[in-house]
Amino acid sequence: MILSTPPLTEPARRPAGLPVVGGPDPVSAARRRRLRLAAVAAGVWLTFVHLMVTTGPPRTAEADGGDHGRAATGRVACSCAGSARP
Question: What is the pTM of this model?
Fold first, then answer.
């Protein structure tokens, strides 16, 4: 016994996605705003990380061995001020 099947027909083709036509951008304003804010945030964080990596810790007068109070006013005495010359 031979059974015959009906021939397969191709389904109707529909265009995929949005049609390509001239006119306004199909991207919503809210989506463009989110992308813009994300780009700005990434730039701020990259700048912050760059500055943290390329700059050293702040130096203080105590770390240099001087007196902080006098070093801040610019009146640091020379260590040889009271010595006698030969």
Answer: 0.41
